[in-house]
Design a protein that fits this description.
- With 826 residues, the chain is an all-beta fold.
- It has a domain at 565-719.
- The protein is built from one helix and 68 strands.
- The strands form seven sheets. The protein has a 33-stranded mixed β-sheet that branches. It has an 18-stranded parallel β-sheet, with no helix packed on it.
- Strand 22 and strand 23 (226-228) form a beta hairpin.
């Protein structure tokens, strides 16, 4: 709100200056007389200045134009540059028209005290025009045209090459309500201190627009890519409010912006060629960039390729509201140009409130690549998008571009997505994400009854004949929670592609999203999903590599198909933990087969009240293959199942190999079928422990049951295990409180004696010998008869305990034996 008031105050002050500025065009006497020119038609002839070769120099003490006034520069037709300076130390207020009748001559207008453009300001020149608050204009390598110190000037025939600023705080340029344009193919340039555009339009058809803000001494060099400087030059503030910069035409020009703090509010930057010429570029370089409710876009409407769009920011880019950073190919008929590349470079990137970065094609042209390189964090929230699309529906529809993201951390929340979509014959674009640390996908945005939940996520989709793109993600940690998703979906004849996820430390898929609309509750699990919703081609494959994979609280990894084959699932993990209704599934609801699930674990797999399953409605069930060296534990309703609901398809096989322990506690392993044969179950383990309420089945309602092969040392010991006592035996309660020998100084003692004879072999199955001897306690002084002390002798040693009192060693009754459960063993 404070920013708004300051802009309002600035607008009022600027308007006051414009309205109350006298019309003044006064020569400063550098060449000839010190005279005021007569308006409102100011005739600025060549003889009023100084011509050096193809350069014409003018020097003014003041230069102001009111609305309706025209300043016309004239001279020989062979002039190439008309260069003017204002030396009086007061800003120039330009609310009239600057005109030139010199064919093809470029114009330079310098006033180091500042320049203000009003609502009636116009430009009518045949060449390029440059406005600057620089102190010096460099000419070639040796010449210069000075403004603050005119006497230091050295005029030459060389063309201008750079703007020199001597002040720590160069004066500003303000453009208020103006419509400024140059002729086709030429440049419109502004350089100075703070730059502010409000309710204005700048147009350079097939030309170039330069906006450069500088906040220190330094040089700005004229190049084909705008005004450039070295790293020692500090850049200033640039604000564009309710304005438009447009370089569109049959071909297209370029827009170059250089600033420290750059802000765009409700504004547009456009580069849109319509002919066969290549599009120009839009390039913004800044320390920080804030864009709200604005459009920055390059496109092509004809056979020429679209231009490149680059945002290069040292610190943070913040995009919010109805903001789009786009490149597109819009021609719907061949020949059609391809969309340009979008390049984003920053330390931090934030997209909120629906802001988007995208590239798309609407016809035969290809979509552009999006390349995002961010050093620290990329955070998308509030239904923000990074997307590539192919929206052409004709036979020659172009392919969507691809998305490449490189960062440390990527965060997607509140329905934000990174996505690729194709609607016709074009191929969907691929997504490649490389995060040095963490990718976090969290939550959702609520929708309507048709789409009640919009998950945060990374998604590729195909709605026509084109295939969906691939997803490849690499990070240290990947977190998907509260309804977030990574998915691939096809809704037509297109085929799903592979999802490959690699997390070098851990991967978590946890929780679900819940939304209540009109009294109905909708739920969506956090998941990695590949689905063929209605098409004839199979869903894509899911491949996951990580040392630790945790699925909990309804988290899922799933492939599915309505009519085609479901995709495969391959997991390469160290540890796999499934808990509380988590699932790894592959399902086919139609005539297609369920996909295979292959899990290779380096340590252990635990499935607690969760499932690993494949299911087919009519065709063959998918195989499940699990390889794990240490432990496979299914507990509390944990299941591994393959099933076929109907038809003659056989149940999928289940193969479990190499674990030291397989534990089933209230768990099931099933390979069932309906009309076909049941699947085969093969379990090979060192130890196989199954509770009495667990089961392993391979049934078929109409076909032949499958075979069950279990190879292990123990195959069912659930009925022979007992529960150990919950407390240790306290021997002290069995002894008298005091040994009588304490009164006479006698002490209790242990005696260890070697066992005579040869001990049994360690692998002898016979019972160990137990020797028992009785010794009389001659030292007892108790009036009661002394008792014998038992000495228990085991193989290898004899352990004897002697106590001088008359204590008696007894044993307590053992509790009744009960069945032990596997959870009490581990």
């Amino acid at each position: 709100m404070q920013s708004y008031y300051w802009h309002l105050i600035g607008f009022i002050v600027t308007l006051f200056i414009i309205v109350n500025s006298p019309a003044e065009v006064i020569l400063d006497g550098s060449w000839g007389s010190h005279d005021s020119l007569t308006g409102p038609q100011f005739d600025i002839r060549a003889e009023l200045g100084n011509q050096v070769g193809h350069n014409l120099f003018h020097s003014f003490e003041r230069f102001n134009l009111n609305a309706g006034e025209i300043a016309t520069f004239s001279g020989p037709n062979d002039l190439e540059n008309v260069i003017s300076r204002v030396t009086g130390g007061t800003p120039s207020t330009l609310d009239g028209t600057i005109r030139s009748t010199i064919p093809q001559a470029n114009m330079y207008f310098l006033n180091p005290a500042g320049i203000i453009f009003g609502e009636s300001a116009k430009i009518d020149v045949p060449g390029a025009i440059h406005f600057s608050t620089a102190d010096v204009l460099q000419l070639g390598e040796a010449g210069q045209f000075a403004t603050t110190h005119p006497q230091t000037s050295l005029l030459t025939t060389a063309a201008p090459t750079a703007f020199g600023f001597l002040s720590d705080s160069p004066h500003s340029i303000t453009i208020q309500g103006s419509q400024l344009s140059v002729t086709q193919g030429n440049t419109l340039s502004f350089s100075g201190g703070d730059l502010e555009l409000t309710q204005s339009q700048l147009q350079a058809e097939e030309g170039q627009i330069n906006l450069t803000s500088i906040a220190s001494p330094g040089w700005l060099t004229l190049t084909s890519s705008g005004l450039t400087s070295d790293d020692t030059v500090k850049t200033g503030h640039l604000t564009i409010n309710d304005s438009q910069l447009d370089v569109s035409g049959q071909g297209s020009g370029s827009i170059f912006i250089r600033a420290g703090q750059a802000q765009l509010n409700n504004s547009k930057l456009l580069s849109k060629p319509q002919g066969d010429k290549a599009g120009g570029m839009i390039q913004i370089q800044a320390n920080d960039l804030v864009v709200k409710d604005s459009d920055i876009s390059t496109s092509t409407d004809g056979p020429g390729p679209g231009g490149k769009l680059t945002l290069a920011v040292a610190n943070a880019i913040k995009l919010s509201g109805i903001t789009g950073v786009f490149s597109s190919a819009r021609s719907e008929q061949p020949p059609a140009g391809d969309a340009g590349q979008v390049v984003i470079k920053a330390k931090e990137l934030y997209l909120t409130e629906g802001a988007q970065i995208g590239s798309g094609t609407f016809g035969p042209g290809k979509g552009g690549e999006i390349d995002i390189q961010v050093g620290d964090i990329i955070a998308l929230s509030g239904s923000a998008f990074i997307s590539v699309n192919s929206q052409g529906t004709g036979e020659q529809a172009g392919d969507a571009g691809k998305i490449i993201i490189t960062t440390r951390d990527l965060t997607l929340t509140q329905g934000a997505q990174v996505g690729s979509t194709t609607f016709g014959n074009g191929q969907g674009g691929s997504i490649a994400i490389n995060a040095n640390d963490t990718v976090s996908i969290d939550g959702y945005a609520p929708g309507d009854e048709q789409f009640p939940i919009y998950p945060s996520g990374i998604n590729v989709s195909a709605f026509g004949n084109g295939n969906a793109g691939a997803i490849e993600l690499v990070a240290k940690q990947l977190h998907i929670k509260e309804g977030g998703a990574i998915g691939s979906s096809t809704y037509g004849a297109g085929q799903g592609d592979k999802i490959t996820l690699t997390a070098s430390e851990s991967m978590n898929i946890i929780g679900s999203a819940k939304v209540t609309l009109s009294g109905t509750e909708y739920t969506r699990s956090s998941q990695v999903e590949s689905a063929s919703e209605a098409g004839a081609n199979q869903a894509g494959q899911v491949v996951i590599n990580t040392p630790l994979l945790i699925l909990a609280d309804s988290g899922k990894i799933t492939t599915s198909a309505q009519t085609a084959h479901a995709g495969k699932i391959e997991l390469q993990v160290g540890q796999l933990k499934l808990d509380n209704q988590a699932a790894i599934t592959s399902e086919s609801a139609g005539a297609g087969e369920a996909g295979q699930i292959r899990i290779s674990a380096g340590e252990q797999i635990k499935v607690n009240h969760a499932k690993i399953s494949t299911a087919a409605a009519q065709a063959a069930g998918g195989h499940i293959t699990i390889t794990v060296p240490q432990l496979l534990a299914l507990q509390a309703g944990g299941t591994i199942t393959t099933s076929v609901q109907g038809g003659t398809g056989g149940g999928g096989d289940i193969t479990i190999t190499n674990p030291t322990f397989v534990i089933l506690n209230q768990a099931k392993i099933k390979a069932d079928a309906h009309g076909g044969n049941g699947g085969n179950i093969t379990i090979k383990a060192d130890q196989y422990l199954r509770s009495v309420d667990s089961s392993v089945t391979a049934s078929s309602q109409l076909g032949t049951p499958g075979e069950i092969r279990i190879t292990a040392l123990n195959t069912n010991i659930g009925g022979t295990l007992v529960i150990l006592p919950a407390t240790f035996l306290d021997v002290s309660v069995l002894l008298k409180s005091f040994c009588e020998s304490q009164a006479t100084g006698k002490q209790s003692h242990f005696v260890v004696k070697a066992l005579t004879g040869t001990p049994p072999s360690p692998d002898d199955w016979k019972s160990n010998r137990l020797l028992a001897t009785t010794t009389h306690n001659s030292a007892a002084t108790s009036p009661t008869p002394s008792t014998a002390n038992s000495t228990l002798t085991f193989p290898a040693v004899v352990v004897a305990m002697a106590c001088p009192d008359s204590a008696k060693l007894t044993s307590a009754a053992k509790p009744a034996s009960q069945a032990v459960t596997p959870t009490q063993l581990f």
